[in-house]
Amino acid sequence: MRIGFIGLGNMGAAMAANLLKAGHEVTAYNRSADKVAPLVAQGARAATSVADACQGDIVITMLANDDAVEAVTFGADGILAGLSAGAVHVSSSTISVALAERLTAAHSEAGHGFVSAPVFGRPEAAAAAKLFVVAAGKSAAVATASPIFDAIGQRTFVVGEAPEAASLVKISGNFLIASVIESLGEAMALVGKAGVDKQQYLELLTSTLFDAPVYRTYGGLLARETFTPAGFAATLGLKDVKLALSAGEQLQVPLPVASLLRDRFLTLLATGGGDLDWSAVGALSAWEAGGKPPA
Ligand code: NAD
Protein backbone atom coordinates (compact mmCIF):
# COMPACT_ATOMS: atom_id res chain seq x y z
CA MET A 1 0.00 0.00 0.00
CA ARG A 2 1.21 3.58 -0.71
CA ILE A 3 1.26 5.32 2.65
CA GLY A 4 2.19 8.85 3.66
CA PHE A 5 3.46 9.19 7.23
CA ILE A 6 3.54 12.57 8.96
CA GLY A 7 5.19 13.00 12.37
CA LEU A 8 8.34 11.06 13.11
CA GLY A 9 8.66 11.61 16.85
CA ASN A 10 9.15 8.99 19.57
CA MET A 11 6.19 6.97 18.31
CA GLY A 12 5.92 7.85 14.63
CA ALA A 13 9.50 6.90 13.69
CA ALA A 14 9.03 3.38 15.03
CA MET A 15 5.54 2.96 13.53
CA ALA A 16 6.71 4.10 10.09
CA ALA A 17 9.68 1.72 10.27
CA ASN A 18 7.29 -1.19 10.89
CA LEU A 19 5.20 -0.21 7.87
CA LEU A 20 8.36 -0.43 5.75
CA LYS A 21 9.20 -3.82 7.29
CA ALA A 22 5.72 -5.05 6.37
CA GLY A 23 6.43 -4.16 2.72
CA HIS A 24 4.46 -0.93 2.39
CA GLU A 25 5.67 1.98 0.29
CA VAL A 26 6.16 4.84 2.77
CA THR A 27 6.61 8.54 2.02
CA ALA A 28 7.61 10.30 5.22
CA TYR A 29 7.33 13.91 6.36
CA ASN A 30 8.43 15.63 9.54
CA ARG A 31 8.46 19.33 10.45
CA SER A 32 12.19 19.14 11.25
CA ALA A 33 13.70 17.32 8.28
CA ASP A 34 16.57 15.67 10.21
CA LYS A 35 14.16 13.03 11.56
CA VAL A 36 13.41 11.77 8.04
CA ALA A 37 16.95 10.57 7.16
CA PRO A 38 16.96 7.41 9.38
CA LEU A 39 13.71 6.31 7.78
CA VAL A 40 15.02 6.97 4.27
CA ALA A 41 17.93 4.69 5.17
CA GLN A 42 15.31 2.00 5.87
CA GLY A 43 13.68 2.45 2.45
CA ALA A 44 11.23 5.35 2.81
CA ARG A 45 10.94 8.24 0.38
CA ALA A 46 11.37 11.71 1.90
CA ALA A 47 8.38 13.95 1.25
CA THR A 48 9.17 17.54 0.38
CA SER A 49 5.93 18.83 1.94
CA VAL A 50 2.78 17.66 3.70
CA ALA A 51 0.99 17.65 0.32
CA ASP A 52 3.77 15.45 -1.11
CA ALA A 53 3.04 12.89 1.62
CA CYS A 54 -0.63 12.81 0.56
CA GLN A 55 -0.22 11.18 -2.86
CA GLY A 56 -1.00 7.62 -1.75
CA ASP A 57 -4.04 5.63 -0.58
CA ILE A 58 -3.61 6.62 3.04
CA VAL A 59 -1.92 9.31 5.09
CA ILE A 60 -1.18 8.74 8.79
CA THR A 61 -0.56 11.52 11.26
CA MET A 62 1.30 10.84 14.51
CA LEU A 63 1.76 14.39 15.75
CA ALA A 64 2.10 15.85 19.23
CA ASN A 65 -1.27 17.47 19.87
CA ASP A 66 -4.40 19.14 18.51
CA ASP A 67 -2.51 22.23 17.32
CA ALA A 68 -0.09 20.14 15.25
CA VAL A 69 -2.85 18.00 13.70
CA GLU A 70 -4.90 21.12 12.93
CA ALA A 71 -1.94 22.89 11.31
CA VAL A 72 -1.00 19.90 9.17
CA THR A 73 -4.58 19.12 8.14
CA PHE A 74 -6.24 22.49 7.66
CA GLY A 75 -3.19 24.61 6.80
CA ALA A 76 -2.29 25.82 3.31
CA ASP A 77 -1.06 22.78 1.32
CA GLY A 78 -2.30 20.61 4.19
CA ILE A 79 -3.84 17.14 4.14
CA LEU A 80 -7.33 18.33 3.39
CA ALA A 81 -6.17 20.04 0.20
CA GLY A 82 -3.56 17.41 -0.72
CA LEU A 83 -5.43 14.11 -0.32
CA SER A 84 -7.17 12.69 -3.38
CA ALA A 85 -10.87 11.78 -3.31
CA GLY A 86 -11.45 8.37 -1.74
CA ALA A 87 -8.14 8.37 0.15
CA VAL A 88 -8.12 7.98 3.94
CA HIS A 89 -6.59 10.04 6.74
CA VAL A 90 -5.72 7.91 9.76
CA SER A 91 -5.08 10.06 12.84
CA SER A 92 -3.09 8.14 15.47
CA SER A 93 -2.27 11.07 17.74
CA THR A 94 -4.12 11.41 21.02
CA ILE A 95 -6.39 14.35 20.14
CA SER A 96 -9.51 15.93 21.57
CA VAL A 97 -13.00 14.63 20.93
CA ALA A 98 -13.85 18.04 19.46
CA LEU A 99 -11.01 17.89 16.92
CA ALA A 100 -11.89 14.30 15.95
CA GLU A 101 -15.44 15.52 15.22
CA ARG A 102 -14.14 18.46 13.19
CA LEU A 103 -11.79 16.23 11.17
CA THR A 104 -14.61 13.77 10.49
CA ALA A 105 -16.85 16.51 9.08
CA ALA A 106 -14.12 18.19 7.02
CA HIS A 107 -12.86 14.95 5.45
CA SER A 108 -16.37 13.78 4.72
CA GLU A 109 -17.10 17.05 2.92
CA ALA A 110 -13.89 16.66 0.89
CA GLY A 111 -14.76 13.09 -0.11
CA HIS A 112 -12.04 11.51 2.05
CA GLY A 113 -12.28 8.75 4.61
CA PHE A 114 -11.28 9.53 8.18
CA VAL A 115 -10.32 7.08 10.92
CA SER A 116 -9.26 8.01 14.42
CA ALA A 117 -6.83 5.29 15.50
CA PRO A 118 -4.92 6.28 18.64
CA VAL A 119 -2.67 3.68 20.22
CA PHE A 120 -1.75 2.29 23.62
CA GLY A 121 1.91 1.42 24.19
CA ARG A 122 5.15 3.35 24.66
CA PRO A 123 7.93 3.76 22.04
CA GLU A 124 9.39 0.33 22.95
CA ALA A 125 6.03 -1.28 22.11
CA ALA A 126 5.85 0.78 18.91
CA ALA A 127 9.31 -0.48 17.90
CA ALA A 128 8.28 -4.07 18.58
CA ALA A 129 5.00 -3.66 16.59
CA LYS A 130 3.14 -4.47 19.83
CA LEU A 131 0.84 -1.45 20.06
CA PHE A 132 -2.85 -1.78 20.83
CA VAL A 133 -4.82 0.20 18.26
CA VAL A 134 -8.20 1.72 19.13
CA ALA A 135 -9.92 2.53 15.84
CA ALA A 136 -13.20 4.11 14.82
CA GLY A 137 -14.55 5.30 11.50
CA LYS A 138 -16.76 4.22 8.62
CA SER A 139 -16.28 0.48 8.13
CA ALA A 140 -14.89 0.85 4.58
CA ALA A 141 -12.25 3.32 5.79
CA VAL A 142 -11.35 1.10 8.76
CA ALA A 143 -11.03 -1.87 6.38
CA THR A 144 -8.70 0.15 4.10
CA ALA A 145 -6.54 1.02 7.12
CA SER A 146 -6.48 -2.45 8.68
CA PRO A 147 -3.20 -3.62 7.01
CA ILE A 148 -1.57 -0.64 8.72
CA PHE A 149 -2.95 -1.62 12.10
CA ASP A 150 -1.69 -5.18 11.55
CA ALA A 151 1.81 -3.85 10.79
CA ILE A 152 2.11 -1.58 13.83
CA GLY A 153 0.20 -3.41 16.53
CA GLN A 154 -0.60 -6.68 18.24
CA ARG A 155 -4.36 -6.12 18.36
CA THR A 156 -6.94 -3.67 17.04
CA PHE A 157 -10.16 -2.77 18.80
CA VAL A 158 -12.80 -1.17 16.58
CA VAL A 159 -15.09 0.93 18.76
CA GLY A 160 -17.69 1.98 16.22
CA GLU A 161 -18.19 4.27 13.25
CA ALA A 162 -17.80 7.60 15.04
CA PRO A 163 -14.07 8.49 15.08
CA GLU A 164 -14.40 10.61 18.22
CA ALA A 165 -15.28 7.45 20.20
CA ALA A 166 -11.76 6.09 19.62
CA SER A 167 -10.26 9.39 20.79
CA LEU A 168 -12.43 9.36 23.92
CA VAL A 169 -11.49 5.75 24.76
CA LYS A 170 -7.79 6.58 24.38
CA ILE A 171 -8.12 9.73 26.53
CA SER A 172 -9.93 7.74 29.24
CA GLY A 173 -7.17 5.13 29.19
CA ASN A 174 -4.41 7.69 29.64
CA PHE A 175 -6.37 9.25 32.51
CA LEU A 176 -6.36 5.80 34.16
CA ILE A 177 -2.62 5.38 33.60
CA ALA A 178 -1.92 8.82 35.10
CA SER A 179 -4.06 7.89 38.12
CA VAL A 180 -2.00 4.72 38.63
CA ILE A 181 1.27 6.66 38.33
CA GLU A 182 0.13 9.16 40.96
CA SER A 183 -1.15 6.55 43.43
CA LEU A 184 1.86 4.30 42.91
CA GLY A 185 4.16 7.27 43.48
CA GLU A 186 2.39 8.07 46.76
CA ALA A 187 2.58 4.44 47.93
CA MET A 188 6.26 4.20 47.01
CA ALA A 189 7.04 7.47 48.80
CA LEU A 190 5.41 6.02 51.90
CA VAL A 191 7.23 2.70 51.99
CA GLY A 192 10.45 4.21 50.61
CA LYS A 193 10.71 6.77 53.41
CA ALA A 194 10.35 3.96 55.94
CA GLY A 195 13.33 2.22 54.34
CA VAL A 196 11.57 -0.52 52.35
CA ASP A 197 13.41 -1.33 49.11
CA LYS A 198 11.28 0.02 46.23
CA GLN A 199 12.28 -2.71 43.75
CA GLN A 200 11.39 -5.39 46.26
CA TYR A 201 8.11 -3.64 46.99
CA LEU A 202 7.30 -3.52 43.27
CA GLU A 203 8.17 -7.20 42.90
CA LEU A 204 5.66 -7.94 45.67
CA LEU A 205 2.94 -5.80 44.06
CA THR A 206 3.34 -7.23 40.57
CA SER A 207 3.56 -10.82 41.84
CA THR A 208 0.30 -10.52 43.77
CA LEU A 209 -2.70 -8.26 43.20
CA PHE A 210 -1.15 -5.80 40.75
CA ASP A 211 0.12 -8.07 37.99
CA ALA A 212 -0.54 -5.71 35.08
CA PRO A 213 1.68 -3.99 32.50
CA VAL A 214 0.79 -0.54 33.83
CA TYR A 215 2.15 -1.38 37.30
CA ARG A 216 5.20 -3.16 35.92
CA THR A 217 6.15 -0.42 33.45
CA TYR A 218 5.48 2.62 35.60
CA GLY A 219 6.47 0.96 38.87
CA GLY A 220 9.82 0.13 37.29
CA LEU A 221 10.38 3.73 36.19
CA LEU A 222 9.42 5.04 39.64
CA ALA A 223 11.55 2.49 41.53
CA ARG A 224 14.57 3.23 39.32
CA GLU A 225 13.82 6.98 39.44
CA THR A 226 14.71 7.15 35.74
CA PHE A 227 12.80 9.86 33.92
CA THR A 228 15.09 10.65 30.97
CA PRO A 229 15.00 10.20 28.08
CA ALA A 230 11.25 10.62 28.07
CA GLY A 231 9.32 7.89 26.27
CA PHE A 232 6.23 10.05 26.77
CA ALA A 233 6.95 13.61 27.82
CA ALA A 234 5.27 15.22 30.85
CA THR A 235 4.00 18.05 28.62
CA LEU A 236 2.06 15.44 26.63
CA GLY A 237 0.80 13.88 29.88
CA LEU A 238 -0.66 17.23 30.92
CA LYS A 239 -2.20 17.54 27.46
CA ASP A 240 -3.99 14.20 27.89
CA VAL A 241 -5.32 14.99 31.37
CA LYS A 242 -6.66 18.27 30.00
CA LEU A 243 -8.28 16.36 27.12
CA ALA A 244 -10.03 14.14 29.68
CA LEU A 245 -11.22 17.20 31.61
CA SER A 246 -12.58 18.90 28.50
CA ALA A 247 -14.35 15.71 27.40
CA GLY A 248 -15.81 15.49 30.92
CA GLU A 249 -16.92 19.10 30.70
CA GLN A 250 -18.54 18.53 27.28
CA LEU A 251 -20.43 15.45 28.55
CA GLN A 252 -21.04 16.89 32.05
CA VAL A 253 -19.11 14.11 33.76
CA PRO A 254 -17.15 15.33 36.79
CA LEU A 255 -13.64 13.85 36.95
CA PRO A 256 -12.27 14.94 40.36
CA VAL A 257 -9.16 12.76 40.11
CA ALA A 258 -8.35 14.26 36.70
CA SER A 259 -8.61 17.75 38.25
CA LEU A 260 -6.05 16.71 40.85
CA LEU A 261 -3.79 15.19 38.18
CA ARG A 262 -3.89 18.42 36.21
CA ASP A 263 -2.44 20.25 39.21
CA ARG A 264 0.18 17.53 39.76
CA PHE A 265 1.35 17.91 36.15
CA LEU A 266 1.37 21.69 36.50
CA THR A 267 3.63 21.31 39.54
CA LEU A 268 5.96 19.05 37.56
CA LEU A 269 6.12 21.50 34.64
CA ALA A 270 6.50 24.55 36.90
CA THR A 271 9.49 22.95 38.61
CA GLY A 272 11.27 22.28 35.32
CA GLY A 273 10.08 18.73 34.61
CA GLY A 274 8.24 19.28 31.31
CA ASP A 275 10.75 17.26 29.29
CA LEU A 276 10.91 14.40 31.78
CA ASP A 277 8.92 11.21 31.22
CA TRP A 278 5.37 11.70 32.49
CA SER A 279 5.98 9.02 35.14
CA ALA A 280 7.99 11.72 36.97
CA VAL A 281 4.65 13.06 38.21
CA GLY A 282 4.62 10.05 40.55
CA ALA A 283 7.99 11.08 41.97
CA LEU A 284 6.64 14.41 43.25
CA SER A 285 5.34 12.65 46.38
CA ALA A 286 8.79 11.41 47.43
CA TRP A 287 10.16 14.92 46.85
CA GLU A 288 7.40 16.45 48.98
CA ALA A 289 8.24 13.89 51.68
CA GLY A 290 11.76 15.31 51.96
CA GLY A 291 13.48 13.53 49.06
CA LYS A 292 15.01 14.79 45.82
CA PRO A 293 13.16 16.43 42.92
CA PRO A 294 12.56 14.13 39.93
CA ALA A 295 15.27 14.46 37.25
P1 NAD B 1 6.89 13.48 20.03
O1 NAD B 1 6.91 14.79 20.73
O2 NAD B 1 8.07 12.58 20.15
O3 NAD B 1 6.66 13.74 18.46
C1 NAD B 1 5.70 14.68 18.04
C2 NAD B 1 5.78 14.92 16.53
O4 NAD B 1 4.90 16.00 16.20
C3 NAD B 1 7.15 15.30 16.01
O5 NAD B 1 7.36 14.61 14.80
C4 NAD B 1 7.04 16.81 15.73
O6 NAD B 1 7.85 17.22 14.66
C5 NAD B 1 5.58 16.91 15.36
N1 NAD B 1 5.00 18.25 15.56
C6 NAD B 1 4.77 18.87 16.75
N2 NAD B 1 4.18 20.07 16.54
C7 NAD B 1 4.01 20.19 15.20
C8 NAD B 1 3.42 21.16 14.36
N3 NAD B 1 2.88 22.29 14.86
N4 NAD B 1 3.43 20.95 13.01
C9 NAD B 1 3.97 19.82 12.50
N5 NAD B 1 4.51 18.85 13.24
C10 NAD B 1 4.53 19.03 14.58
O7 NAD B 1 5.54 12.77 20.47
P2 NAD B 1 5.22 11.19 20.55
O8 NAD B 1 5.61 10.72 21.90
O9 NAD B 1 5.70 10.53 19.31
O10 NAD B 1 3.62 11.26 20.54
C11 NAD B 1 2.88 11.51 19.34
C12 NAD B 1 1.40 11.36 19.65
O11 NAD B 1 1.15 10.02 20.11
C13 NAD B 1 0.88 12.27 20.77
O12 NAD B 1 -0.43 12.66 20.49
C14 NAD B 1 0.92 11.38 22.00
O13 NAD B 1 0.00 11.80 22.98
C15 NAD B 1 0.57 10.04 21.40
N6 NAD B 1 1.09 8.84 22.10
C16 NAD B 1 2.35 8.81 22.62
C17 NAD B 1 2.82 7.67 23.27
C18 NAD B 1 4.20 7.61 23.88
O14 NAD B 1 4.43 6.74 24.74
N7 NAD B 1 5.14 8.45 23.49
C19 NAD B 1 1.99 6.55 23.36
C20 NAD B 1 0.72 6.59 22.79
C21 NAD B 1 0.27 7.75 22.17
TrEMBL record:
The keyword DNA repair does not apply. Keywords: NAD, Oxidoreductase. Residues 166-281 form the 3-hydroxyisobutyrate dehydrogenase-like NAD-binding domain. InterPro entries: 3-OH-isobutyrate_DH-rel_CS, 6-PGluconate_DH-like_C_sf, 6PGD_dom2, 6PGDH_NADP-bd, HIBADH-like_NADP-bd, HIBADH-related, HIBADH-related_NP60_sf, NAD(P)-bd_dom_sf. The keyword NAD applies. PROSITE patterns: 3_HYDROXYISOBUT_DH (PS00895). PANTHER family: CYTOKINE-LIKE NUCLEAR FACTOR N-PAC, OXIDOREDUCTASE GLYR1-RELATED. This is 3-hydroxyisobutyrate dehydrogenase-like beta-hydroxyacid dehydrogenase. It comes from Mycolicibacterium frederiksbergense. The lineage of its organism: Bacteria, Bacillati, Actinomycetota, Actinomycetes, Mycobacteriales.
